[in-house]
Design brief:
Helix content: 40-55%
Radius of gyration: 19 Å
Shape: elongated
Structural class: alpha/beta
Order of helices and strands: EHEHEHEHEHEEEEHHHEEE
Length: 237
Amino acid sequence: MHAKSLLVVDDDADLRTLLSGYLGEQGFDVTEAGDGRAMAAALAARAFDLVILDLMLPGDDGLTLCRNLRAESSVPILMLTARGDELDRIIGLEMGADDYLPKPFNPRELLARIKSILRRAHERGGDEKTVRELAFAGWTLDLGARHLVGRDGVVTPLSNGEFRLLSALAEHANRVLSRDQLMDVLAGRESGPFDRTIDVMISRLRRRLGDDAREPVLIKTVRSEGYVLATTVEHRA
C-alpha cells in the first residue's frame, strides 16, 4: 500500500518542518508549501490524499484557498487556525473544510484528525450509492450537484456544510439527530458544550427552506435531544 500523501500549507517554516518530520515518521509522504501560490504549484504537480491548510496566510488566506480548492476538487481539507473564533470554524466548514484544529495543538491530536478524515474519505469512496436525489415537501436535494431545487424549478445553492447537514437530516428523516451526531457529519467529532456551530447552520438551512424559525415545520428542534427533518423523504435513483 502506498503512503498517503499530505500537503502542508503554512507560512511558518519551523512549523512546516516540525510537521513534515513528525508526519513523515508516521508513514506519510509530506509536501510543504508556504503560501497559496506554492500550494497551487504543488497541487498542479501531483494529487494529494489530504491538504492541511493554515487559515492565516500571506496573500490569499486559508478560507479563500479552501473555497477555491473545493470548487475544483474533493480532496479532504484540514484547516489550522490560531483563532478561537467560532465564526471562523463555521465559515471554514461551510467553505468545504472537513475538519479544523486550533493552534497550538498536540501533534498526536493532528495525527488523530488526519486518520479520521482519511478513514471517512475512504468510506465515502467505497459507498456505491444509487440514490441521486432526495425529495421532500416540494424540495429536491440533488446529491450530485449538491444544491436544492424548489417546486418552481429555482435552484438554491448550498454551502458545503449546509449540504452535509441537510443530507444527513434527509437520509434520517423523522429521526432525531443529536448535535454530536450532526457535528460528526461536519467534522468527524463531538461538539463542545459551548459550540453553537450546528445551531447556527440549522438556522441558515431553515432560511433556505423558508421554514419559520419560531415555529419550524420542516427542521424541528427536539429539546435536549437535537434536530429532526419532520417530513417524508423520497429516494430517487
